[in-house]
Design a protein that fits this description.
Blueprint lengths: L1 H15 L4 H12 L3 H29 L3 H26 L14 H13 L2 H16 L5 H21 L1 H8 L2 H24 L2
C-alpha cells in the first residue's frame, strides 16, 4: 500500500514538473511573495479533484469497456514519448530566464481568477491527471485509491515547494541554462514512465 502511494507521488510530480503556464504562474507568485498560500492551495485542490475523478472514473469505465485499459495504456505511452521529445526539443532551443515581473501586486481575487483559468482551461491538465493518471492507477489494482492519494500528495508537495521555495531558487531560475537542464530531466522522466507502462504490464 505504502509503495503504491509512493509510486503515485512520484508519477504525479513527474507529470506536473514541466514548466507550463500554471507552474510559471505559481513560480512568479512565489518570487514576488504574493498570495502564495492561496495560489498553492487552489492548485493542489484542483489537482486532487482531477486525480480523484481520473482514478474513480477510469476504474468504472474500464469495467464497462474491457479494452479501454490497454487502449489508454498505449495511448499514454505514445503521449509520454511525444511529450518527452518536446522537452528535448525545448532543451535544444535553449532556455529562457523567468523574471517575476515588475509593478505593484495584484489583488487576491484577480490572482486567484488567473490561477483558476490557467488550471481549468489547460487541456494538458485533464490529459495528465484524469486520463493518464487514471490509466496508470489501474495498473495498481486493487490499490488505486492509495495511488490516487499519493498522486494528490505529490501535487501538494510540488506546488508547495514551487511557491514557497521560489525565493531561494530565484538566482537559479534567472539562468537560462537551468531551464535547459530541467527540460532534459523532464524529458528523461517522461520516457522512463513510458517504458514502465510499455514493459511493466
Amino acid at each position: 500500500m505504502f509503495e503504491t502511494a509512493v509510486q503515485g507521488w512520484l508519477v504525479s510530480i513527474s507529470l506536473i514538473l514541466a514548466i507550463g503556464a500554471q507552474n510559471a504562474f505559481v513560480l512568479r507568485q512565489g518570487l514576488r511573495g504574493e498570495h502564495v498560500l492561496a495560489v498553492v492551495a487552489v492548485c493542489a485542490l484542483a489537482a486532487a479533484v482531477l486525480i480523484a475523478a481520473g482514478v474513480a472514473g477510469f476504474g468504472a469505465a474500464s469495467k464497462a469497456l474491457p479494452w479501454l485499459g490497454d487502449a489508454m495504456r498505449w495511448g499514454g505511452v505514445v503521449f509520454l514519448l511525444a511529450y518527452g521529445a518536446l522537452r528535448f526539443k525545448a532543451a535544444l532551443k535553449g532556455g529562457e530566464a523567468l523574471a517575476p515581473g515588475e509593478g505593484q501586486g495584484a489583488p487576491l481575487g484577480k490572482v486567484l481568477a488567473t490561477c483558476l483559468i490557467l488550471t481549468w482551461a489547460n487541456p494538458h491538465v485533464y490529459l495528465d491527471t484524469v486520463a493518464l493518471l487514471g490509466s496508470i492507477s489501474a495498473q495498481y489494482a486493487p490499490r488505486e485509491v492509495a495511488f490516487g492519494i499519493g498522486a494528490a500528495a505529490g501535487s501538494l508537495t510540488f506546488f508547495s515547494a514551487l511557491g514557497f521555495g521560489a525565493r531561494a531558487l530565484a538566482p537559479l531560475f534567472a539562468n537560462p541554462k537551468a531551464w535547459v537542464v530541467l527540460e532534459v530531466v523532464v524529458g528523461l522522466t517522461m520516457w522512463a514512465i513510458a517504458a514502465g507502462l510499455a514493459f511493466g504490464g
